[in-house]
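A common beginner's mistake is to predict each chain separately and then try to dock the pieces by hand. The better habit, illustrated here, is to supply every component at once so that their relative placement is modeled jointly.
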Amino acid sequence: METERLIMRPLTGSDFDDYAAMLTDPVVAEGLVESSGTTPSDAWRSLATFIGHREIRGYSHWALVEKSTGSFVGRAGPWQPHGFPGLGVGWCLTRAHWGKGYATEAAAAALAYCFAELGAEEVISLIRPGNTRSISVAERIGHRHLRDVDYRGKRVHLYGSSRSPR
Ligand SMILES: CC(C)(COP(=O)(O)OP(=O)(O)OC[C@H]1O[C@@H](n2cnc3c(N)ncnc32)[C@H](O)[C@@H]1OP(=O)(O)O)[C@@H](O)C(=O)NCCC(=O)NCCS
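With all components supplied together, the output reads:
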């Protein structure tokens, strides 16, 4: 997969150093619905979960790589672990790459993949209240706030899009 400015390829164990640098940043971690800590060990378990999700589901978040530099930008893609309330798309960028439009670029490609390749009728995203940057990404890809739900002990916004416009 690629977009205008990004390569989207499977996450691998070799991404660990970059991945850990991203997730041990508390400002990044505080936005994440799935966050379970900010230590390198927590990041390792997170990376293993995203790699394992591809093994189990056949899809997962991709590593995002900046075409112009080869730098690791973050991750984004389809996501539906056990207990998740639908097929999701998610996004997370290392802070140095915020403010460039990369999350929206990757999220739009991931959403299109869910409709075209996974045959989804509806695709959702769970977002913590107050995560205004993430809400903006959701709205830019055409998601609408549908309802709030309890997920893993937190009350979160559920945004979503349908294959056919509502
Ligand atoms: C949520 C997150 C991915 C949003 O990142 P972001 O950089 O704000 O979002 P985008 O990549 O879409 O970039 C949009 C910004 O880039 C700007 N931009 C600059 N150049 C651009 C370009 N060429 N094209 C589009 N936008 C561009 C936009 O104007 C916008 O700026 P603004 O924030 O001042 O309005 C990021 O904050 C993050 O990783 N947070 C931590 C993890 C997290 O919360 N994940 C979401 C869980 S639900």
